[in-house]
Amino acid sequence: MNDASSDLIDRLRAAVPEARVLTEPDDLQTYGKDWTRQFEPRPLAIILPRDTGQVQAIVNFANENKVALVPSGGRTGLSAGAVAANGELVVAFDLMNNISDFSASDRTVKCQAGVITEQLQQFAADQGLYYPVDFASAGSSQLGGNLSTNAGGIKVIRYGMSRDWVAGLTVVTGKGEILELNRDLVKNNTGYDLRHLFIGAEGTLGFITEATMRLTRPPENLQVLVLGLADLTNTMDVLQAYQQKLDLTAYEFFSHQAMGHVLAHGDTPAPFETEAPYYALLEFEATSEAVMETAMALFEECVEKGWVLDGVVSQNETQARKLWQLRERISESIAPRTPYKNDISVVVSRVPLFLSEIDAVVREHYPDFEIIWFGHIGDGNLHLNILKPETMDKTEFFSRCATVNQWVFDIVARHGGSISAEHGVGMTKKPYLRFTRSETEISYLRAIKQVFDPNGIINPGKLFDPE
Q1: Is the pTM of this model over 0.70?
Q2: Residue 238, Ramachandran bin (φ over 0: left; ψ between -120 and 50: alpha; else beta)
Q3: In 191-341, where does DSSP find H-type helix?
Q4: What is the mean pLDDT of residues 428-443?
Q5: Burial letters for 26-52: b for 16+ Cβ neighbours within 10 Å, e otherwise?
Q6: Which residue range is the domain that position 22 belongs to?
Q7: In this structure, are residues 192 and 159 in contact, taking their beta carbons and an 8 Å threshold?
Q8: CATH code assigned at 350
């Protein structure tokens, strides 16, 4: 660290004496990155505030000293939205993890930005309620990061995205101003709802410091059904059949190759002996015997029509968790292969054709790449994972995948889809934003950024480059 940087950090400590400041190399590495591996973290320092006032003091200091700030939550992001690669000061929210102001009548609770997703879920359960936004990283992802990327996860088909559960927000803008947005109201028809600008903004307009979250009743007697599908198009056949008669809480899919990586870990057994090219996982509330009878009758109908080769339904909570592991452990099982991830979406009806076109293009041009498909197919969200050959250099691999991106996103644009369904844009998707957003839209995004962050200090270089 040079003298100028050391002096700046000394002045930072003096400006926000209550906050922790970290400068050790291990801390810089830990807090300067997320789950992406394409960018080397090089932060100036890490600062951990404890409340909104301290965050405001940090932003004011950054404006006065022309220091760029990068937010850091659970660091589980997959688009490099929380990576500090250019000497930025990382604002980590780990110490802002308090839950307060629970209202049983409103079914709301106030959370600081550093509250872990699983922590909120457990708090809700302790009150006899339910926070339904859920994903594999629930044990480490933080609420502020979830809201900044409008995280979705495995229950979207029934419960929607993160933004659907936000009653109110406290934010600190890039100007250093504190805004209380929506004040937890159900009805508030008084002009622009600025709350929704900050949700999904990837920390580029300011920092979410607190959120009032809505809760709901817990689901009853959840059952899990895993089906082996004869063909990719059968994902839609089965979805339509079940949605006509049941309210699904989840509808996921994964390829045989994806399941193979999970099974190779040895902790999770195959659901049944029959092998299928694709699998669907359905979850629903069995609130009565009649519901279970309907589910089983639909299974028999799907088998008779040739859509389903085999299937299994959970007999208890333990088996339900085991079946979910077939889907939730995919990312963990392929992580050692340095996967190149694409998180894309189209309207649900277009999914089979969309997936088939992309799969054909990638396999034609890169037959030596292993392709892993899985995702939240019930809401049109697919995860394309290309695994790095073990003998290939990482730099060469990512370079070749950049060529794949062009073809993939051409198909996304042709189908009117999104290049990022739930992971955000960050730095990895930034060059491809034009495939989903028009130039006119991007100009409006830049204008909004300018209003809230005129000095360009808040997470610069994410979403789009400064002009």
Answers
A1: yes
A2: alpha
A3: 195-198, 234-243, 256-264, 289-304, 317-328, 330-334
A4: 95
A5: ebbebbbbbbbebbebebbbbbbbbbb
A6: 3-92
A7: no
A8: 3.30.70.2740
